[in-house]
Specification:
The protein has about 350 residues and is of the alpha/beta class. Helix content is about 40%, strand content about 25%. It contains 13 helices and 13 strands. It has a five-stranded mixed sheet, sandwiched between helices. A four-stranded mixed sheet has the order 8-13-12-11, with helices on both faces.
């Protein structure tokens, strides 16, 4: 019997407030330009991201005022609970399952702190059983969609026949800072949005799309590439290196190394499904993976419609690729704090 974990369903969701990129830039200019003379020289970041619009858990006016930890945490808990329930119910419906049929819940998020964790907070509303296994994961950042899928698949594979629900959500917009007048903060304001994705996996009884293999690559001495600083006012974004340059130099060899451990080569992959960090990162990925320019079309569409939502973003790309029709083998890739590359190979039977 094949004990690979099958992807039974996939769903995505966004919060209610939609922000056009031009309006975000205007608002950022109003708030930051009077105190940050370099703002105008960085304003081109907003038009160079490839983003048309994105979504936030709070209305635009909320972000125009300075916020501290209590306000950010309140917004995170309320927004994340609503998104969790929305996207998880959709994933369960697509899998034709009820919440009390879920045996394990893997919850992935790095943009807020919740104790009890989110799956516990929504357990009664969702209808999870009292004996459901809870696996909350914090700190994976943009790699969380791929690494979370890997964790969920391995848990499903370890207990064939049991249903594993993966829910990943990020409320990146809540990290907007008025006190950090830095290029990294402007980049974050120009790039990030909020969103959620969920998937149901089960091993042992087949399925059209199966998780074939997973792998990661952690680079030493790269803690400064991406992450959070924990400050009195909130999380502070860390971008200390140019990520597109890092991708161009390191991603190709890293993916080849991970694939080799899977006993695969890049030539065995019919489609790469990549986390789209931004338009420059997408172009860098095409170069690094020896793809023709424009190959990562779903990635460009997702970044344009939603911005960079961190962990869930790659699952938005996968959802779009599934609708278009998956080839025999797809490999999901993402980069995140560590600095780490994460890969998941999917086999699909038409």
């Amino acid at each position: 019997m094949n004990h690979d974990a099958a992807l039974l369903s996939l769903a995505t969701a966004v919060p209610p407030h939609r922000f056009h990129q031009a309006r975000v830039m205007e608002a950022a200019r109003e708030v930051l330009a009077p105190r940050y003379p370099q703002f105008d020289t960085l304003a081109s970041l907003f038009s160079n991201t490839g983003i048309r619009h994105r979504y936030g858990v709070m209305p635009m006016e909320w972000y125009l005022e300075r916020r501290g930890w209590p306000e950010r945490t309140k917004a995170y808990l309320e927004g994340a609970e609503a998104l969790f329930v929305d996207v998880a119910r959709n994933a369960l419906a697509h899998a034709d399952l009820a919440a009390d049929e879920i045996d394990t819940v893997v919850t992935v998020s790095s943009t807020g702190i919740a104790t009890p964790t989110l799956e516990a907070r929504v357990a009664k509303r969702m209808g999870f059983r009292g004996d459901v296994s809870r696996v909350p994961v914090f700190g994976l950042g943009c790699a969380g969609g791929v690494s979370g899928l890997s964790i969920a698949a391995r848990l499903a594979q370890a207990r064939p026949g049991r249903n594993v629900l993966l829910v990943t959500f990020e409320l990146c917009t809540l990290a907007v800072r008025h006190d950090e007048l830095t290029k990294a903060n402007i980049v974050a304001i120009s790039l990030f949005g909020d969103g959620a994705a969920a998937a149901v996996l089960r091993a042992g009884d087949g399925g059209a799309t199966q998780v074939e293999a997973t792998g990661e690559k952690l680079w030493p001495d790269t803690l400064d590439v991406m992450g959070w600083s924990v400050d009195p006012e909130g999380f502070g974004v860390i971008f200390q290196r140019t990520i597109p340059d890092f991708v161009t130099e390191h991603m190709g060899p890293a993916v080849s190394e991970i694939l080799a451990r899977m006993e695969l080569t890049p030539g065995d992959v019919d489609r790469f499904v990549c986390h789209p960090g931004g338009s420059k990162v997408i172009s860098a990925l095409e170069r690094a993976l020896s793809l023709d320019q424009g190959t990562l079309d779903h990635e460009r569409e997702i970044i344009a419609d939603y911005g960079n939502m961190s962990a869930p973003t790659v699952l938005f790309v996968l959802e779009r690729a599934r609708r278009a029709g998956l080839p025999a083998r797809s490999v999901l890739t993402a980069l995140g704090p560590g600095f780490t590359a994460s890969c998941v190979s999917l086999r699909h039977a038409a």
